[in-house]
Amino acid sequence: MIGEWLAGLIAAFARGLTGATVQWVDCRPAATQRVYFANHTSHLDFAVLWSVLPRELRSLVRPVAAKDYWSSGFRKELAVNVFHAVLIERRARQTKDKSAEHDSAQQPAAERSPVEHSLIEHAMDDLLQALGEKNSLIIFPEGTRGTGEVIAPFKSGIYHLWRHRPDVEFVPVYLANLNRVLPKGEFLPIPIISRVIFGPPLQLEAHESKESFIRKAHQAICTLRDL
Amino acid sequence: MIAKLDHQMLWIFAALLAVLLVSSIIGFILSRTAQSEGGKATVKNLNARIIAWWKMCGIFALTLLIRPHGSILLFALISFLALREYISLIRTTRADHNTLFWSFFVITPLQYWLLYIHWYGLFVALIPVYAFLFIPLRLVLEGDTSGFLDRAARIHWGLMICVYCISYAPALVILDIPGHSQDPKLLLFLVIVVQLSDVFQYVWGKMLGKSKIAPHVSPNKTWEGFVGGILCATAVGTGLWWMTPFSRLQACAMSLLITLLGFAGGLVMSAIKRDRSVKDFGSTIEGHGGILDRLDSVCFSAPIFFHLTRFFFT
Prior knowledge:
- The structure holds 2 protein chains of 2 kinds.
- By secondary structure, chain A is of the alpha/beta class.
- Chain A contains 10 helices and 7 strands.
- The longest helix of chain A has 18 residues.
- The longest helix of chain B is centred in the N-terminal third of the chain and has 29 residues.
- The model of chain B has no long low-confidence stretch (mean pLDDT 91).
- The interface between A and B is medium-sized, with 12 and 15 residues.
């Protein structure tokens, strides 16, 4: 109850500060099961995206966040109890350096270490469970916050999620200017007018390859950016 | 502290109400008679503007009654939102972040707090002197020197226009004029003349506008709108001499000056919008665009009007 109230308060603050305007391009708000995937530049990304959804949809939409970052103290309180976030293990951070992290997305499953493989399976189980029969998810397939200049290559998790649940709509969302409100590494937000643009759900073939899926998803966000 | 409603204020409010009612009726009739697609769009925008005028007049009138703090609070909020529109539109970099935080959350409130405590000396110097020196200093501490002068100038210019210039409007309320001490009617006079000038320019431009006055800067501004608007607004301003410390002739000269400065403000702010390839600064006020689109004329007229009045009448 207090969590719900606090979530509303944080969302209202984020929306008030950024005066966020929302645009639905060939897409309508609906209670159908969806995966909203967006570019990621700021801690406020999720709160703003969530706050522009119609009130009745908000309780059905859960953010996906990295367990290593959000699972201690106040952050955990905020993520788990207030926003009902799904916390997942980022891929093998302990064993790989940053450059290798990108490459691992391209490796066939057989070349992955057993530990890593089980991590992915575990994360996917959590996501599928969170999605359930009626929920939607918000994911940031870049995996980490960028500077806002370019949209980084997507991790492959979003593709595997689609393979497990092809019935769910994958809706691209472009978040403009949030990198200026609260950039990575800053604690104090400044008021900059931001925009949230929802695009049409991805049109996919039944046997879309991973490369093609990732390309389409990335392109969908870039298209919204260049509108 | 609610002000006693004097007879003059009552008359002005009644007149404003009448003007709004008449324009709403005209807007309604036009919406029934418009035929062409272009005409319908214009009338739709006109009616959105009229509805927004109702709201703006309501809020402004209410805050005038809570004097002098109501106006100070209202314009502080307006400055904050105007600065947000301006900063959102221009290019800023990551290294500007902390300086912008200071601008929004320290310098802007401080400027209005100085008004609140009537510290005139610092009020006129805070942004032109102290903020002017502080901004480049805070920027240089970030260690990023690329485009340094551009960045410092952009931020300072925004503070000057959106905060410093706009804060002169509520400053009128704290002017010590013999017989008009702390009188909100001077602020009311400025806002009525400036905004009516915009409205008359729009109306004359829509009805008779042919020859463009600055086609590259502001394609909607015409000579017909300019002359008709300035003359009508000056006439109304002259007719309102009784609510000011001015004689009829002085009120006429002041009104003319205010309207000309207002036009200049509109032109300058349009140049910024064209440079950034946008039509409006924002979408806060339906039909009008952003707060800065509505207040561009006040930015230019308020400081000059304030200083002239202060110089000659206090």
